[in-house]
Amino acid sequence: MAKRLVCVFGGTGFLGRQVVRHLAESGCRVRVVARTPDQTAFAGVDDALLEFCAADLRDDSAVEKALAGAQGAVDAVSLYVERRGFTFEDIHARSADRLARSSRSGGLDAFAYVSGIGADADSESALVRAKAVGERLVAASFPGAYIVRPSVMFGRDDAFLSNLKMATRLPVVPLFGAGDVRMQPAWVDDVAQAIARLVGQAQTGEGGERVFEFGGAQTLSYREAVAAVCAELDRRRLLLPVPLGVWKVLARAMGVLPNPPLTIDQIYLLAKDNTVNPSRDGFAQLGMQPAGMRDLLGRCLARG
Questions:
Q1: Which of 2, 167, 209, 299 is 20 to 30 A away from residue 144, measured at CA?
Q2: CA distances from residue 85 to 88, 89, 139 in whole angstroms, order as listed
Q3: Per-residue pLDDT at 219 exceeds 70
Q4: How far is CA 174 from CA 154, 178, 254, in A?
Q5: Taking the CA of residue 156 as centre, how many other CA atoms within 13 Å lie in the half-sphere pointing to its CB?
Q6: pLDDT above 90 for 85
Q7: Which residues are CB-contacts of 78 (< 8 A; sequence separation ≥ 6)?
Q8: What is the pLDDT of residues 14-70, one digit of tens each?
Q9: Residue 260, C-beta contacts closer than 8 angstroms, at least 6 positions apart
Q10: How remote is the C-alpha of 250 from its chain's centroid?
């Protein structure tokens, strides 16, 4: 019997790479789909289990071709800064819907859409609004689809810890507001393994709403996260609260840059708690015990 084939859209991204690895380790064949797939990103993965496909998610025929012959699919595409032709609505809503519809019509039995904790159609953040719309569209287009909402993810060479590490090079580290927003940082490897478990086996029946929220074992404030990074790197720093209004002015000014180091959407995200809803399914329902950020800092942060 042929091995199960799962398509991972955004398969060369921070999360997507790890999803590919876990699916391959479970014995699945994996089709890595991206605009320009990087085949060098999968050292150590059995080449015989990997396929690579270049596709534009905004193109119906390209999506259908990428899904041909697959039994499962994952939308792990991420966009955090809008560019010409690539808006949050394009990628996180319309393209997500296109993938779900094509997966449904193509006879796939499992589809997972990676959204995020706090997805809200009424949010001030265009990114958060787009993800909420994407959830609704995916659920309608593929009944029984998995909606995956991770908290902020961390890992080696990530954006979250890398930015904190860079900030701690300064003698004074500015905080977003008082730094008291709570989060449950999830190790990217844990989230990837969970997604692989969801789509790596044949599914039967459509089921109802399937929302999973994934947070790490430790809940901490932004201030505590910065302090933990400082401690791991043996850096004694003053942590300075900076009003969110000041950050918003800076973010809007940086918005004219092609790759701004700070965006208004990031400010909105850091203004609200990012913790799992205890009434939602999560790691426990998959028989998993997630790691905590503090326990993996030494593994994720190279000194220097």
A1: 2
A2: 10, 10, 25
A3: yes
A4: 20, 10, 17
A5: 8
A6: no
A7: 10, 13, 14, 15, 114
A8: 999 999 999 999 999 999 999 888 888 898 899 999 999 999 999 999 999 999 999
A9: 81, 251, 254
A10: 25
